[in-house]
Design goal:
single chain; 4 helices; alpha+beta; 117 residues; rod-shaped
């Protein structure tokens, strides 16, 4: 099956069964047919990719976050940051309170909060 067979021309004829009237005839070579199939496959894959990537269909893919979940993740990150700063303030307050009860000098909480943030 060398180069000669790839360029050999074939004919596909579609004819009516009863009268044998020719309806359609196609001429092609193996190489042309293979290239046409490959091009059609690439176009179909590209179209499917574009359809999924650039339309709201991508939210139907399991595990893909939609806008609501992304917004909720940002809100959760902000809430976690606020809670971390509140815990830091409580720790400093607790440390200061234990120093007061033990008779030591107190810490300036405002200056420590600025350093920790």
């Amino acid at each position: 099956m060398g180069k000669k067979n790839l360029n050999r021309v074939y004919r596909l004829s579609i004819s009516e069964d009863d009268s044998h009237r020719l309806i359609r005839s196609f001429r092609f070579s193996r190489l042309g047919f293979a290239l046409t199939c490959l091009t059609a496959f690439i176009v179909v894959l590209g179209s499917l990719y574009a359809l999924i990537a650039f339309t709201p269909l991508r939210t139907t893919i399991p595990g893909y976050p939609d806008a609501h979940f992304r917004r909720q993740a940002v809100d959760n990150a902000i809430t976690i940051d606020s809670l971390e700063s509140a815990i830091t303030r409580w720790k400093l307050y607790s440390e200061n309170l234990s120093r007061v009860l033990s008779g030591d000098t107190t810490l300036n909480i405002d200056s420590l909060l600025v350093e920790n943030e």
